[in-house]
Structures are given as C-alpha cells and as structure tokens.
Design a protein that fits this description.
The protein is built from 3 helices and no strands. With 68 residues, the protein is mainly alpha-helical.
C-alpha cells in the first residue's frame, strides 16, 4: 500500500484501515508466538502500513489546523 493511495481515502476510511491493520498485527504476533506464522516478513510489512496510515492521518490533522 502506497502513501499516495492512502491520501485518496477519507479520514473515516483511514481510521478503519488503521483498526484493521492493528488487528492483523495482533493476529500475526499471536501466530508468531505459537510458531504458526508462514511469512515472518509480513509482520514488518503490516507495521510499515500502520506507520503510513498514521502519517497520512497526521498530515490531514496538520492541514486542518493550518486552514483553521
């Protein structure tokens, strides 16, 4: 998922995406703990996606603050 794709989404969609990614990360960590995770690099990818979503949300917050 690229940041440009995320900027096209609304704030509500981004917050939902963030919640889904956090659930995915929890499940991946659980699978990793019980040695059932097939691709451990998926944890890293999900963490990066979470960071991207949080960054775009923060950019929206800063733009709203500058316009107010």
């Amino acid at each position: 998922m690229k940041a440009a794709e995320l900027r096209e989404l609304s704030i509500e969609e981004l917050e939902q995406k963030l919640a889904d990614l956090k659930k995915d990360l929890f499940n991946l960590r659980f699978q990793l703990a019980i040695n059932q995770l097939d691709n451990p690099m998926r944890v890293k990818a999900v963490k990066r996606d979470i960071a991207r979503v949080q960054t775009v949300l923060r950019q929206f917050e800063l733009e709203d603050g500058a316009n107010a």
